[in-house]
C-alpha cells in the first residue's frame, strides 16, 4: 500500500479537526459554525501534532517504501539504506515538537 506523507499527516490533521468540530457534530449547514474552517493548516498540525506523530511513526516503513518508489536509486536505497531512512524518519518524528 502506498502511503504519502501528505495523506498521512495533513489528512489526519484535517480529519481530527472535523472530529472535534461542534458544527460537524451538530450537522450545521453554515461554514461559519464549523470550527475546522476557522483554523489554518499550520494550526491544525500544531493542535494534533501528538496524534499525527504517533500515526506516522507506526507507518514509517510504508513512508520509506513510498519514498524509495518515487525516488529510486538501487545503490543508495538497498535494504541497509531503507533501514537508515527509517531510523532518520523515526528520530526526526520523535524529536519534533510543534512550534510556531
Quick recap:
This protein has 100 residues and is an all-alpha fold.
Plain-language structure description:
The structure is a single chain. This protein is mainly alpha-helical. It is built from six helices and no strands. The protein has helices at 5-19, 22-25, 41-47, 49-58, 60-70, 79-95. Helix 5 (60-70) crosses helix 6 (79-95).
| Uncertain stretches | 1-6
Which class do the helix and strand fractions yield? mainly alpha
β-strand percent reads under 5%
The largest pleated sheet is described as: none
Mean pLDDT: 79
Mass-distribution shape = elongated
> Helicity range of the residues?
55-70%
Radius of gyration: 17 Å
Q: Provide the succession of SSEs.
A: HHHHHH
- DSSP strand count: 0
The number of helices is: 6
Layout of helices and strands:
Blueprint: H1 5-19, H2 22-25, H3 41-47, H4 49-58, H5 60-70, H6 79-95
Salient structural properties:
single chain, 100 residues, 0% strand
Amino acid at each position: 500500500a502506498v502511503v504519502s506523507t501528505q495523506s498521512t499527516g495533513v489528512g489526519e490533521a484535517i480529519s481530527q479537526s472535523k472530529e472535534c468540530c461542534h458544527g460537524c457534530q451538530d450537522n450545521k449547514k453554515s461554514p461559519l459554525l464549523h470550527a475546522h474552517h476557522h483554523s489554518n493548516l499550520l494550526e491544525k498540525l500544531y493542535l494534533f501534532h501528538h496524534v499525527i506523530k504517533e500515526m506516522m511513526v507506526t507507518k514509517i516503513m510504508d513512508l520509506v517504501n513510498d519514498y524509495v518508489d518515487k525516488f529510486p536509486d538501487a545503490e543508495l536505497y538497498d535494504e541497509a539504506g531503507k533501514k537508515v531512512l527509517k531510523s532518520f524518519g523515526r528520530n526526526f518524528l520523535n524529536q519534533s515538537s510543534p512550534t510556531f
